Amino acid sequence: MKIIESVNSGYAITISTLDPQSLVDLLNTPSVRHGQDPSADELERATGFIGTRQDLVEAGDIGRLLRANLSGELETGDLLQEINEYLRSHQATLEIIDGRLAISSNGSPIIQLYLLVADMIASGIWHRVRKCLGCDCIFYDASRNGKRVWCSMEICGNRAKVGRWRRKHGAVCTCGDVCTCGRRK
């Protein structure tokens, strides 16, 4: 994510410069994956923000909300209500700065994550943020047809296809479990 310029001791950002991968990186930090607030290092690596303790709490809040939505525990309408409440409480406003649409706030830089999600929902691309069928990570599907189900075809996709082939062909280890090494009994 890029902060374009500071406005009135708040943050102004251009909607088109927000990066979905920063959001995905935050959702995949070990702390957020386990329902906790991210560490300062995790937040900085994922988003580039150097956050205060309150920023870490807010980043954890949005992480929990988004993971609940992606796992089906929270409806998108309820997610939008939470986002709108957060934006109202941080007095977010739209502005035009140097001919560019920007959003400013007198609050935390974490507001950019909430704005990114709101923009993705409004523009109809939120459905491209998904939970991988092979592991617990979140990914953004940037493929042309938007039908990816694994975060990585090389890892999760391959594991699923190999597992399906082994079940179909009866590959078992000497211990009797489904084979993971390729040997047959």
TrEMBL record:
Cross-referenced Gene3D superfamilies: Jann2411-like domain
Positions of the Zinc finger CGNR domain: 128-169
Segments traversing the membrane: none
Protein name: Zinc finger CGNR domain-containing protein
Organism, scientific name: Thermobaculum terrenum (strain ATCC BAA-798 / CCMEE 7001 / YNP1)
